[in-house]
Amino acid sequence: xxxxxxxxxxxxxxxxxxxxxxxxxxxxxxxxxxxxxxxxxxxxxxxxxxxxxxxxxxxxxxxxxxxxxxxxxxxxxxxxxxxxxxxxxxxxxxxxxxxxxxxxxxxxxxxxxxxxxxxxxxxxxxxxxxxxxxxxxxxxxxxxxxxxxxxxxxxxxxxxxxxxxxxxxxxxxxxxxxxxxxxxxxxxxxxxxxxxxxxxxxxxxxxxxxxxxxxxxxxxxxxxxxxxxxxxxxxxxxxxxxxxxxxxxxxxxxxxxxxxxxxxxxxxxxxxxxxxxxxxxxxxxxxxxxxxxxxxxxxxxxxxxxxxxxxxxxxxxxxxxxxxxxxxxxxxxxxxxxxxxxxxxxxxxxxxxxxxxxxxxxxxxxxxxxxxxxxxxxxxxxxxxxxxxxxxxxxxxxxxxxxxxxxxxxxxxxxxxxxxxxxxxxxxxxxxxxxxxxxxxxxxxxxxxxxxxxxxxxxxxxxxxxxxxxxxxxxxxxxxxxxxxxxxxxxxxxxxxxxxxxxx
Amino acid sequence: xxxxxxxxxxxxxxxxxxxxxxxxxxxxxxxxxxxxxxxxxxxxxxxxxxxxxxxxxxxxxxxxxxxxxxxxxxxxxxxxxxxxxxxxxxxxxxxxxxxxxxxxxxxxxxxxxxxxxxxxxxxxxxxxxxxxxxxxxxxxxxxxxxxxxxxxxxx
Lengths: 504, 155
Hints:
By secondary structure, chain A is mainly alpha-helical. Chain A has helices at about 1-15, 20-35, 40-50, 60-85, 90-105, 105-140, 145-160, 165-180, 205-225, 245-265, 275-285, 305-320, 320-325, 335-345, 355, 360-380, 385-390, 395-415, 415-435, 440-460, 470, 475-485, 490-495; strands spanning about 185, 190-195.
């Protein structure tokens, strides 16, 4: 335990270097700004910024990207409260209660409870990350290929079946992602696969290209096709952000409950901040002394209904870093893109990360503490500034997004062909969105597919081709049983009337 | 229309399954100790694609995709807008090595803004250039990303 704190202190020495502070600040500011913009999620932001960081040193780049990841979770709440247009599905609950409060002249306290709740949940989340990540990494050091493979299968299945309205369409997305991941050199025998003789394809299909195509171009084309003028969302007036004594008293327990619900959900490979925010909201509604105030009862909006889900959302974001850093397993599209960022620097997240790149990881964790403080400072006093971003007209907004997307894609390989490929993937993205195919499984499948193939073949080599190895070993067997159980979750949820849609 | 699209997507997935299946059968692979070689996972993925494609096709012909409500019935699509956006991206791809990044990206900006209903060409072109210039300098001078230029030097 003393060790952990010493390592963390060392991390602070890295995180508090002026350059790294600057990267954290840029990341938080960009993340918040982009999180505020309606319709643009953290996955897209991180994907677009990946090429920008190519020349920055690894610690600085990862600190900035994690700032973006956190910042985007903060920024989304501003839009939801003021305009009732949640940027990602994890802010739907915030939009529901927060917008009701804003309509009744309490936008300020709603924004304040969201920001402070995010700070508290984020900070508790990072403390838990600090405590648990080394333990999980130690445990994972005992994992062999069989355990990793079965854990990855669990991640595949949860990401594609739990998110999204239909398990089948999630599986279609996953299959497409796995297929894209197959293109290129096979990692064990070095045989080129599905390259059709094109030399550029031996390295595989660029990950950023697919992410930017699906998210940025897909979003722009979808928006221009079906919603060119934008909904006339009315903006609520910003009021003083001061919370009354009563507001504080009602927010506190909700923040803590939201954190308690969010963190565990983030840290298991289940993906998505949506289920924990839903759970937190219904818990607050059941426990509240003022059930009549909830917008579902026609009330003026209850502050607990904003405080809880916002805390849950941010605690989930912190929790998701546990499997990401210790196991190398992404549980959402954003996490998958962060893994790609690590790989750009030849750093493989996983149990060995804490040993091979200790200073970097601890610097990153320390910067999350710093980032949380920065985000609170950025969000409370500057909320008026962020709200002004909502007035950028749609034509210029999307034009700007596409300019940034094309720089990122072109800058990677200096290939104009990649721009055409980005467009084609964007068209596929529109069709997927139109027919409600989730996008995250494509990204997760593409990153996790080749990794799991490697583990599968190594596991079978060790076991001399005995497939029962995945069930004979207790840990691997447990994951396999959990995988089968997870497939029934959507059916159970649907029976209880919960309809899910995709996050990110 | 709806139904045709849904069937089309399922057929596309099935075609993909076939292509990947044929590709897998042509891969030469040495099973080694594992008992599976480089062709194994591709074969599994193609079978997986085939199964989900077939299920999707079955859903499409028997009443449409499940748990899918089309919120866009009756919504007019703005095909012209999409054409402008498409044109902007493809034009940028065609022109970037000829007229340099700054001008190509300005063209993209102007076209996309037009697609979303902006009426003023000139204002968009100027806004676009003002956005693109600092970004170009940031990338080429600070971040050392090589972007094509119109002339050697600052543009």
